[in-house]
Structure formats: C-alpha cells, structure tokens
What does this fold into?
Amino acid sequence: MKKLILTAIVGLAANFATAQNINFGIKGGAVFNTDKGKVWQDAGNIFKRDGKASAGFQAGALARVSLAGIYIQPELLYTQFKNEYNVLDKNDKPQDIGITKKRLDIPVNVGKRFLGIGHVQAGPVFSYYFDDKLSVKDFTTAKQDEFNVGMQIGAGVEVSKLLFDLRYEFGLGKVGSDILNGSNGQYRTENRPQMLNLSVAYLF
It folds into this structure.
C-alpha cells in the first residue's frame, strides 16, 4: 500500500509539473539606480547632503511556471550598483566616496501574456545585501543593513525564447550603512532602493 501511495504521489507530481509548463532560463541586464540617497554625520545626526546615483548590472537564473492564463516567475539574481557621497576626510576637506552595493535578489513576479508577444508583471522582490565596497581606503564599513523588501512592476516583449523586460523597482523600506573615517568620525548613508531594470532572458 505504501509503495502504491508513493507511486501515485510521484505520478501526480510529474503530471502537475508537465501541466504547469515549467521553463528555466538565464538573464542579465542593466540597472539604473535612481535613488541618490543621503548621508548624515554621526555627531548630532547632522544632515549633510544628497548623494549621486549610478548604473549597475544584474545576472542570474529564472523559472517560469504557466498556469491558467498567467505565469509565476521566481528569479535568483546577483545585483550590483553604486552611490557616491561627499563627506569630510581626516583633514576636514570635502571628499567623494563611492559605495558599491552587492546583493542577492529574489523577485517573484506574477505576469500575464497578451497579443502573443507582450506581457505585464508585478510582484515582490526580496533582497539580501552582503557587501558594501568603498572606493576610499581611509573609510571602512562598520555595519550595514542586510535585508530589504521591495516591489517591481513592469512590461516586456517575447520573441521566440527571448524575453525583454523593463521593470521599475521601489523599496518598501530604507537601507543604511555606517561608515568609519579613522578617528575623525562616523557617517551613516541611507537609501530607499528605486531603480529601472532593463534585462534580457533566454528560456531553455
């Protein structure tokens, strides 16, 4: 009986996977960071000024599960982008520092195809920030926020096995990093992720 039940479960799972039309693929593209961010000086939490945003990139893998006229598309992506801030160095002179943020993203979008070539989609994106790389040796990262949740909305076109996407992403919370400048002081940067993602994917 146990073998019969196990065989039935395996058979149902196989039929379900076939019915759902699961496709896997790889993707990559550019991210255009639109959030400049802000930086504060630790003493008295004094506001300093806005930063500058720059473009980055992302790459990874995806799966698309088709079901009843819609699809669910989870992805695993490596994303990297940069912000620049103007702070004071050890001699109290203005200095630009660049912070390259590296994170793992897991977007889970629900989409709908139309006209046989286009699609629209939306869903949450879960991000894990694992490294802040600084461009100036005098500064070191003391600590950083590691997790954030955002939302993505977008549209795209499909040509054979190629998927072209444009998405807008906005964070539901802010992400900060504490930066030390030797014995001169401590700074805190703060960003609410906002970016445009332009990507191309290939389904196997």
User: Anything to note?
Assistant: The mean pLDDT is 84.
